[in-house]
Amino acid sequence: FFAVKPNSTFNMFLKYISLVILLGSTSYGANILGIIPTTSYSHQIAYAHLWKELSLRGHKVTTITSNPLKDPTLTNLTEIDVNWLYKYYDAVSNTLDMSISMWHIYDIWIQFMVFMSDEQLSYAPIQNLIHNKTNFDIVLVESFFPEFLGFAEIYKCPKILISSFQTNAYYHHAMGNPIHPLLHPDIMTPFYGALNFKERVTATLFGWYLSYFFSHKIIPEKEAILRKYFNVEATVEELVYDVDMLFINENPAVQEAKAVGPTTINIGGLRQPISPNSLPQEIQEYLDNATEGFIYFSLGTNIRSKDLDEQTLRTLNEVFEEVPYKVLWKFEADELPGKPENIKLIKWAPQQNVLSHPNIKLFITQAGLQSMEETITSEVPCVVIPIYADQEKNAKLMKRKGFAEIVERTPFLEKEELKKSHPGGYK
């Protein structure tokens, strides 16, 4: 319509607008260090999707993990693999009493966590992170291992604590969150909802005990590790109380609503999306052919059903033999004595895909957090056999929400209790 001279003001204006648009669309990727030292698949998988998405969105991510993704397409993701530490984890798991009480579990964990910290921080690739000239923009550390916050002190960068399930009062207090044991009993207590007098007394005493235990046992042990490997002036407690944010794998819409400050973020439900057609062909065909329905039995990744006592295994066999359904059982051994014909043993399966199968009738679970979340997503009724840690609290939550029944081991699994626990029976 009209001619524009090459050196006109209008031409310069176009160049200016183009520059503004280009600058406005520029993104800056961060160099992120993620540290999840716990050698447990359930702890690692809770954040695997986070590392993947951060790397896909242009950030450079380095992780210390016992379950690396090993995805060659994630070119921005560097993984320091400490999977070899599972040999120690398995040794501890094999000697762990399935009836361990809440009064002893933290004592066992601290011994194991100190050992694992020592092993990992002395590992050459992690030593390189301590002593090389790499600069990270932010450090995320699993809350069980606050001594690893020494990395943030070295790099002089913001630090975030992350927890793969509900965290305890020590970290809430560090963030300024008003947590009281009567309103929010510790995650390791078997209490949920309105407490009776005995439960209130027990929750309060355990809260006091845990406060003392953290101050006089856990923090001093962590302090010794920090001094051994990091040349920093700050103490573990100073590092924890100076944390910029706390991420908790908790959903207040499902679990307990808590009054927390703006630097505490609930990120419950952070799971890997279900991948279509990801069931192994043999399992897919077995479930597809279960036209009358099937039961899925799994005690998660930290509890091996092969280690259940002989009487409990016999009870499970007898009950499963009587049901008109097929049974898919996550069992870690090759053979199960007395196994009925309707049971198929597997050592692992993508659980979300199994629970999403249209033929499923029931999920028998230990009530781990990830299993509970996946059950809610898939809308599958449950029978819960809680073993230890947070599972009793989760089990009571699931029962109160109306999608689970609880079967206790007292000390053995009772056949009649298990038979009548399925919502609606087996008909």
TrEMBL record:
InterPro entries: UDP-glycosyltransferase, UDP_glucos_trans
A Pfam match: UDPGT
Keywords: Glycosyltransferase, Transferase
Superkingdom, taxonomy of origin: Eukaryota
Recorded coiled-coil stretches: none
Molecular-function GO term, any one: UDP-glycosyltransferase activity
Family statement: Belongs to the UDP-glycosyltransferase family.
Protein's name in the database: UDP-glucuronosyltransferase
